[in-house]
Amino acid sequence: MRNEQTLMVQDLYACHQKMPVLHGINLRIDPGKVTVIVGPNGCGKSTLLRCMARLHKPSQGVVRIGDDDLWQLRPQLAARRLALLPQAPQAPEGISVGGLVRYGRHPHQGLLQQWSADDERAVRHAMQATDVMSLAERPLEQLSGGQRQRCWLAMVLAQETPLLLLDEPTSMLDLGHQVDVLNRIRLLAAAGRGVVMVLHDLMAAARYADTLVAMRNGRVLASGAARDIVTPELVRQLYEVEADVLAAPGDGAPVVVPVAAHGAVIAARANADSALVA
C-alpha cells in the first residue's frame, strides 16, 4: 500500500543537451527511510536528484508523491512536499544563521500571509534539531564548514516537508563532522521523514542507508539493503576497482577495502628496485 508521502520514480529518462543521462530509472522512497544513491562521477546521481526536485525536466517517465505527479503540481505546493539541499548552496553575503533558516519558510508565505507563530515554531525546532540555536545571530560566512552544513540542514528542515533530498551533504567535511551530519539525518528519518541522499563515500552510504541504490552510466545496477548488495563484484562494476568486502565489528555494515591499488603500488616499487639494481 502506497503512503500519500511515498515518492515513486517510474521509468525515468533524462538528457543533458540531447545526450541521454538517465535510462529507465525506477525507485521507491518511503517515509521514515534513508535512501542513499552511490556511483562513480558522471553516472547520473545528481541529475536523478534534480529530476525529483523539479530542477531538471525528465524526457520520459514520471515522479509521483502519493498519487500526485510532482511535475504537475504548482511550484509552491511541490515545495511543501519536498525540499532539496544542493551540493554547493549559495547564501546572500552577510546573512545571519537565523536569516538563512527563515528562508526555509518561503513556500509557506504568500501575498497576504504574514510571519506567523507556526513559522517561528518551525524555525526554532529546525535550529534545535541541528544544534545551531546558539549561532542564530552569527554571520554564516564566519562559521566552520561543519557548522555551515548544519545551518543549511536547518533551513531545509524549517521548510517542514515530509521528504528531503540531499546532494552530497557531507562534502568537504572532516570525519567528525561527517558522522555528526549523518547521525542527525538518521534521526530525521527515525522521526518519520523520507530522505534521499547522494554520497560519494560507499562505506558511509552502506552504514547509514536503509536502501542503497548503486548507479553506473545512468542505470541502476543494484538496489536494496547494503549487506545484501555490496559485494566485490558490485564494487568492480561501479568503480573498476578490485576490493574485499568485510563486515564491520559490531553492526556488520559492509567495509570496502581496495586491493588492486595496493598490488599496483607493490609492483611499481618492485619495478623501480629492479631498475636501480640494473
TrEMBL record:
<keyword id="KW-1003">Cell membrane</keyword>
<dbReference type="Pfam" id="PF00005">
    <property type="entry name" value="ABC_tran"/>
</dbReference>
<keyword id="KW-0547">Nucleotide-binding</keyword>
<keyword id="KW-0406">Ion transport</keyword>
<keyword id="KW-0067">ATP-binding</keyword>
<dbReference type="InterPro" id="IPR003439">
    <property type="entry name" value="ABC_transporter-like_ATP-bd"/>
</dbReference>
<feature type="domain" description="ABC transporter">
    <location>
        <begin position="7"/>
        <end position="242"/>
    </location>
</feature>
<keyword id="KW-0408">Iron</keyword>
<keyword id="KW-0472">Membrane</keyword>
<dbReference type="InterPro" id="IPR051535">
    <property type="entry name" value="Siderophore_ABC-ATPase"/>
</dbReference>
<keyword id="KW-0410">Iron transport</keyword>
<protein>
    <submittedName>
        <fullName>ABC-type Fe3+-siderophore transport system</fullName>
    </submittedName>
</protein>
<dbReference type="InterPro" id="IPR027417">
    <property type="entry name" value="P-loop_NTPase"/>
</dbReference>
<dbReference type="GO" id="GO:0006826">
    <property type="term" value="P:iron ion transport"/>
</dbReference>
<keyword id="KW-0813">Transport</keyword>
<dbReference type="GO" id="GO:0016887">
    <property type="term" value="F:ATP hydrolysis activity"/>
</dbReference>
<dbReference type="InterPro" id="IPR003593">
    <property type="entry name" value="AAA+_ATPase"/>
</dbReference>
<dbReference type="GO" id="GO:0005524">
    <property type="term" value="F:ATP binding"/>
</dbReference>
<comment type="similarity">
    <text>Belongs to the ABC transporter superfamily.</text>
</comment>
<dbReference type="GO" id="GO:0005886">
    <property type="term" value="C:plasma membrane"/>
</dbReference>
